[in-house]
Specification:
Length: 658
């Protein structure tokens, strides 16, 4: 079966996950049978889909007609046979209890077509054990969506012991057809990838407080502001539900042993039904303002302890062939919102240091959770999880947040490569971009730059606010961040080569400031541009208050910045910000064509033209002086003779930059 053969998807369970998955499938054009055990359950799920679609239409993310057509593709059902008898693919999303799921599969096997694929949305239970209830274990896999499915990009595709590779390929293709990013989990292991990282991290945070050596505030401050994760460990536990993480931990403990022994502090919260935000109180009191985490209460020991546990879990996943470091990092960034993946994050922290931290804790406590995984020692000896990679082919262009490619025609293509965070601009990306511009200027094989964003969601949705707040909102750090961005973007603006920004999707805030530094800009019809900083109580801090007015005029620049609105590409073309608006189907070809045309121009004349324009922005006389000097120097170049010869002979010049 190919993904094109899938027409009808049955979703079993109409709760939060079930109705969310059904909505995602229907939005992708599939006929969906949504089934639950009672009319009231399935009707509530259907009503939630209708409400969500209305919200998407209200925000102009889909049209009213698309919302109506999507809802028409969802059929709410209670009768099991009617729900699955014509299904090509079945996604089970019933409560996370092994016996409940097994009962469902027993009945499903009775009514589903022989060729249908079964996929469970379990977040941690054994795929193999569930598959063995059916008569088709080879056509059974895990397909773990994240909550809420409509918004979360990640889908973990998990192999059971009997799953055919073709079924995994099909499931990944289906996830992509639904607009999601699948990550394959090669082996059935409790927690798969994301929960295998998050849940032990939550447990370790609890053990740190249980020991009396740390407070909740100290641990969450270390997690959120020192390590830079989206939430503190206890804050996240409250958000998800302490009972949810605790039950996953219990299952890990049962299957994997005492290294996953739940901390008594978690058990107490579950017993007292203080489960977090949903009950009004957990580790924080939500009737009294909720989580108020100090920015400066963490310390290095707390950071190393949390990082060491993460590194150990990464090592266990890699060492047991559950997933490789790339897959782990991608999954955790997409599914948990980490600014960087745990493998890279712990590499940067130094695996030798983290091994020493675990050894010291194991000596002190004797607890199995601190026993160093064999593969962690191997990775530390090799210089990190990525330490053994052969980067020889990458040469000078080896970065973590961007890619540099040479597609031909003397074009250097710079790809903002953080699609899991809408290509938002972090400190590290600024450093990588600045280094790349410097290196490309020295590359004799490159004569024009093409700047794009990875994926089809965003060129760049702006600054990575999470990365910016990791320092605790220190004004002095903010000043330095602004200066760093201004300097990096200034390099791009002053680059002697022509620079083209090719925009597809969101181009907002810092992303628009970046595009402003290009010499020419084109965008797809579906793109959106804007400077939303005033909505946050900020102002554009990477040159936007200065550069934008030179492109669209001061009045339009103030309109864009003060209103903080989003603008469609046609409007931005009218304002003079965009040179071209193109259809999505033509976007990549036209962007490369434009960059290649510019790369074929006279390099010396292009360099001096940019220099004169920049010099004359605020001082016309200075610009004219540069222009006249450049005009004289160009008279003595080989390029001039090449241009004149080609003109006289009605041919195309071959400029060499000499």
């Amino acid at each position: 079966m190919d993904v094109e053969d899938i027409n009808t998807i049955a979703v079993l369970g109409a709760g939060n996950m079930g109705h969310g998955i059904a909505e995602v499938a229907a939005l992708a054009g599939y006929e969906v049978n949504l089934r639950d055990i009672k009319d009231e359950f399935v009707q509530n799920g259907y009503d939630q889909i209708e409400w969500s679609l209305d919200k998407l239409a209200e925000k102009d993310q889909i049209s009213d007609d698309e919302a109506e057509a999507t809802l028409d593709r969802v059929t709410p059902l209670v009768d099991f046979e009617e729900a699955v008898s014509d299904a090509d693919f079945v996604i089970e999303a019933v409560p996370e209890k092994m016996e409940i799921k097994k009962d469902v599969y027993g009945e499903l096997e009775e009514y589903a077509p022989d060729e249908a694929v079964f996929a469970t949305n379990t977040s941690s239970l054994s795929i193999t054990e569930l598959s063995e209830v059916t008569e088709r274990p080879e056509r059974f896999c895990g397909m773990h969506f994240f909550n809420p499915p409509v918004r979360m990009q990640l889908v973990e595709v998990i192999s059971g012991a009997h799953t055919d590779d073709e079924v995994l390929d099909l499931t990944e293709d289906l996830a992509e057809a639904m607009g999601k990013s699948p990550v394959r989990v090669r082996k059935d292991s409790p927690g798969f990838i994301v929960n295998r990282i998050l849940v032990p991290l939550m447990n370790e945070a609890a053990w740190m407080v249980e020991s009396g050596e740390y407070t909740i505030a100290e641990v969450d401050s270390a997690t959120k502001f020192d390590i830079g994760l989206p939430m503190g460990s206890f804050e996240l536990a409250d958000q998800v539900g302490i009972d949810v993480g605790y039950h996953v931990l219990e299952y890990m403990h049962d299957v994997l042993g005492d290294a996953y022994e739940p901390c008594p502090l978690l058990a107490e919260k579950v017993e007292d039904e203080k489960l977090g935000k949903k009950t009004g109180e957990g580790f924080y009191d939500y009737d009294d303002g909720g989580a108020d985490i100090p920015t400066d209460a963490g310390n290095e020991d707390a950071v190393h302890r949390l990082q060491a546990v993460m590194a150990n879990e990464v090592a266990k996943l890699v060492g047991n062939d559950v997933a490789n470091p790339d897959a782990i990092d991608e999954a955790v960034m997409l599914g948990a919102g980490f600014p960087e993946g745990p493998a890279k994050m712990t590499d940067d922290a130094g695996l030798d240091t983290l091994v020493e931290t675990l050894e010291s804790l194991h000596d002190e406590t004797g607890a199995e959770r601190y026993e160093v995984a064999d593969y962690l020692r191997e990775a530390a000896d090799e210089g990190g999880f990525y330490g053994g990679d052969d980067d020889s082919e990458s040469g000078a262009y080896d970065y973590d947040t961007i890619r540099v490619e040479k597609p031909g025609e003397m074009v250097g293509k710079v790809v903002l490569d953080r699609p899991h965070r809408m290509n938002t601009i972090s400190d590290e990306l600024l450093d990588d971009l600045g280094d790349a511009v410097d290196a490309l200027e020295e590359d004799d094989e490159v004569r024009a730059l093409l700047l794009v964003g990875e994926g089809d969601k965003a060129f760049s949705a702006g600054a990575d606010v999470q990365s910016m707040t990791a320092g605790g909102g220190d004004p002095l750090q903010a000043v330095e961040l602004s200066k760093t961005g201004q300097e990096t973007f200034g390099k791009l603006e002053a680059c002697p080569m022509p620079v083209v920004a090719a925009i597809d999707g969101y181009c907002l805030g810092g992303g628009m400031e970046l595009a402003t530094c290009a010499d020419m800009r084109l965008a797809t019809e579906r793109s959106e541009m804007g400077q939303p900083e005033h909505n946050l109580g900020l102002l554009p801090g990477w040159g936007g208050t200065q550069r934008l007015k030179h492109i669209v005029g001061e009045g339009r620049a103030k309109e864009i910045i003060f209103t903080a609105d989003r603008f469609d590409p046609e409007t931005m073309a009218d304002y003079g910000f965009l040179n071209e608006v193109v259809d999505v189907s033509e976007f990549e070809d036209r962007a490369f064509e434009l960059a290649a045309d510019l790369a074929g121009g006279p390099p010396i004349a292009q360099k001096y033209t940019k220099r004169a324009m920049l010099a004359g922005r605020d001082d016309t006389d200075a610009g004219l002086a540069v222009e006249s000097q450049a005009f004289g120097q160009l008279m003595n170049t080989d390029d001039l003779m090449e241009g004149i010869t080609a003109f006289m002979g009605d041919g195309e010049p071959d400029f060499q930059g000499k």
